[in-house]
Amino acid sequence: MNKLNTQWIGLLALTLLGPVTFAQPKAPKDQESILTGLESKTAHYGAVAKQIWDFAEVGYQEVKSSALLQEELKKEGFAVQASVAGIPTAFVATYGSGKPVIGILAEYDALPGLAQEATPERKPIDGKKAGHACGHHLFGTGSVASAIAVKNWLQKSGKSGTVKLYGTPAEEGGSGKVYMVREGLFNGTDVVLHWHPGDSNGADPSTSLANISAKFRFRGISAHAAGAPERGRSALDGVEAMNHMVNMMREHIPSDTRVHYVITKGGEAPNVVPDFAEVYYYARNKNREILQDVWKRIVKAAEGAALGTDTKMEVEIIGGVYNVLPIESLSRLMHKNLSMVGGVTYTDEETRFAEKIGETFGASFGSIRKPQEAARVGTFSTNDPTSGGSTDVGDVSWAVPTVGMRAATWVPGTAAHSWQAVAAGGTSIGVKGMMVAAKTLTLTAMDLFNDPTLITKARAEWEELRGKNFKYEALLGPRKPALDYRK
Known about the structure:
Organism: Nibrella saemangeumensis
Keywords: Hydrolase, Signal
Strand order of the largest sheet: 1-2-6-3-7-12
CATH class of the largest domain: Alpha Beta
Structural class: alpha/beta
Shape: globular
CATH architecture of the largest domain: 3-Layer(aba) Sandwich
Number of strands: 12
Number of domains: 2
Radius of gyration: 23 Å
Signal peptide: 1-23
C-alpha cells in the first residue's frame, strides 16, 4: 500500500480557500456537526482521490485503487468483504446492524487513452495510457467519505441501522455492478445512494440508456495479398462488411437508438491478408426490449458478413446494463439536501484555471457556460429524464430503490470522457465538488435513518414502476465477469 502524498495534503489545504457554500435553510445542529467533520477531512480525502487519479487503473485492474479505499474503511471499523461476485477488485464494507440498511455506491475505474496532466491545456502524461475522464477517483473517494461520516453519526447518535459501501469496479463497459446484483449482494438493502462527477449540480430523477456491448471476432485465412490473394479469406473484410450493414441499418431502427463501434484489431500489414480481426460494439436504447431487438439484428449482420466473406465469426458479450429506474420521492429528498449544501465556489486561482480551460471548449460552450455556474444548484425538474449515457447503476436500481445526484467536479461546459475532465478532476476544483457530493449523500442517508416512512414511500413508488410481474434477468446472460476486457 502506497502512503498518501503528504505534500499533496499540504498543498490542498492551502488551495482549498473559499469553502463550499451552504444555501439556506441551514442544517440542524446534528447535521451541521457531521458536515463540519466532513469539511475538516477535505485535505485527507483530496489526497486519497489524487492518489487514485495517479493510479488511473482501468476496469477490473483497479488493484491499488480498490485496496486504498478498503484500507480507509477498515481503519474506521468497517467489516470488509473483498473479491466478491468473482471480481478481485469488488468489495462490500459494512458497519452497524439491523434495519434500515442504506447502501452507497463507489466507483474507481479509469478510461483508456486519456492520460492528462492537471493543467488547463492538453498535456498527455508520458508513459500513461489511461486517465480519470469520468471522475471515478472522486466518485469512489467521496462515497467512502460519506459512508464513514454516516458511521460516525450512527455511533454518536446511538441510532440502529446498517451502512454498506459497495466497491464497484469496471463501470466503464465492464458492468461490474451487474455481477454484484446477480450474486444477490444488494438483497436486504433498503435504499442505495450514488452520485457522479459532472459540470453542474443537480439531483433530478433522470434515467439512462440500457446498453449491450460485445466483441465480434472474425477468423479467415492468411495469404500473400498480391502473390496469392485468391487463397486468402480476409477477417478484416468480415469486420468491414458487418460495419457497413450495421450503418445501413441505422435508417431502419428507432431514432433514439445509439450504435457505435471501434475496430480493435484489423491486421498487421497491408500485404498480408488478415486471418483475424475484431470489432467492439455498443448499442443503447432507453427501452431494453427495443435494445434487445436491435441487438439481434446486429448479430445477424455479423453472421451475414461472415457468410459473405467466407470467414468464421464468434461473438463475446462484454457488458449489458439496464436503464436507471428513477424514484422521484428520493430525488426530491436528495435535491433538498443538495440545496442545503450548495455548490462549488471557486478561488481566484481556480477561476483563472476555469476560464483558461473554457477557451478549449469552442465558441458554442466557452461563451455560454461560465465558471460561476459551479456555485449554483439546478432547479428540480422531471422534464428531461433521459441522459445519453449508460451505467450499471441501472441494474442496481431495478434490484433496490436507488437515488443519485451530480456534483460540479468539472468546469461548467466540460464534456465527460474528455481530457478537460481529467485535468479538472486532478485539482482542488474536483475535490470541492466531491465534498459537495459526500455531504449531500450523508444528509440523505441521515434522513432515511431518521424517518423510515421515506423508505416505505420510496419502495411503494419503486414497486409500481418495476411492475407486478418483474423478474430480473441480466442482459449479459450467465457469463462470468469479463476480467480481461481492457487487456
